[in-house]
Amino acid sequence: MIAVFVAVVGIIVxxxxxxxxxxxxxxxxxxxxxxxxxxxxxxxxxxDVTITEDNGDNTYVGKAELDNGAVINVNIEYxxxxxKIYVEIPYSxxxxxx
Length: 98
What we know:
The protein is α+β, with helices and mostly antiparallel strands. Helix content is 24%, strand content 41%. The chain has helices spanning 21-39, 91-95, and strands at residues 7-13, 46-54, 59-66, 71-79, 84-90. It has a five-stranded antiparallel sheet with strand order 1-5-4-3-2. It is globular and about 35 Å long.
């Protein structure tokens, strides 16, 4: 049996003042809210995002703490020239919330 994991990506234009980790963490929160609420129809919101790994090419691995205390893994990509943040929540993480 082959398991297929689908990743969901949220895209939002977000003005980031600089590209410090804390700015990217703050900018990721509303995207995570949007993905959880609109794509997965979950009544959850993101309280905090912490970047745990900087891959060095404007891609990051992080943890998102939700309003119910759950923590999920997220992937974040920042495009400084376009001022865009992309967030990916692996579907396997969403399954843990149900």
